TrEMBL record:
Superkingdom assignment: Bacteria
Any one Gene Ontology cellular component term annotated for this protein: membrane
Ranges annotated as spanning the membrane: 30-52, 64-83, 103-136, 148-168, 180-201, 213-234, 240-262
PANTHER family assigned: ACYL-MALONYL CONDENSING ENZYME-RELATED (PTHR22911), SOLUTE CARRIER FAMILY 35 MEMBER G2-RELATED (PTHR22911:SF137)
Biological source species: Ruminiclostridium hungatei
InterPro entries according to UniProt: EamA_dom, EmrE-like
Transmembrane helix in keyword set: yes
Keywords: Membrane, Transmembrane, Transmembrane helix
Record domain EamA: where: 1-136, 150-285
Pfam family, one: EamA
The protein's name in its UniProt record: EamA-like transporter family protein
Family under the similarity heading: Belongs to the EamA transporter family.
Amino acid sequence: MWIVYALGAALFAGLTAILSKCGIRNTDSSLATALRTIIVLLFSWLMVFIVGSQASIPEIGSNTLLFLVLSGLSTGASWLCYFKALQLGNVNKVTPIDKSSTILTIILAFVFLGENMTVVKAVAILAIGTGTYLMIERKETNKTDPQSNLWLAYAIGSAVFASLTAILGKVGIEGVESNLGTAIRTMVVLIMAWIVVVVTKKQNTLKLIDRKSWVYLVLSGFATGGSWLCYYRALKDGPASVVVPIDKLSILVTIAFSYLFLKEKLTFKATMGLVLISTGTLALLL
């Protein structure tokens, strides 16, 4: 059953990237992240009360709570980097880098969680790494604009923090119901996001958000909420080294929608990269 949840997480995550890209076109990325997190938080706690796991809050151990908080901080950092990268770069370039967190997650799961490192996983890592390189390589570099490659740094930061989120989340949810764990982590993300907004004084731009952007931000929040709930439910029952790769298949959804709605096209080299990433990801399911 955890595989079904993992596939659901991939679908919703793919939709999140497109909806978020549309929502942050005329909105500061940090403010957009903070606003979206409100929706995710409401969605998360709604699920907590639906399943009745709020009664187990007093039973959460200090060690579990610590890892949930650390996971939330990693998630917040990943989100802030990811949506800043989306604002600066193309979806079909940012997403492959973000999804390359699979590589680091597998390595960390092997080192800290004791999950096996097989030949298949090693080959998959090579395929995903090569595919990511092919998808982000550009023929030309804008040397006159020092900010032109800034999206790349944010995308890499997103991938690093996403991998830490998976490992910390896996440890943190072992002693708590998955929906409740997601809700607690989301609270941490919300606090972190709004601290960034206030420090950078971006809250003053709230009144500048147009109606269309609000719609996309709200929808992306619901998509994120659905992805999270599916993802951490799958992570609770399944191995991190398999759940995470399935979730990363959301790149196929994202690339498809970026072509249909954002008119972002892939070169032949980038297409070969996408094939390698997908093949490597699917190989991890063996």
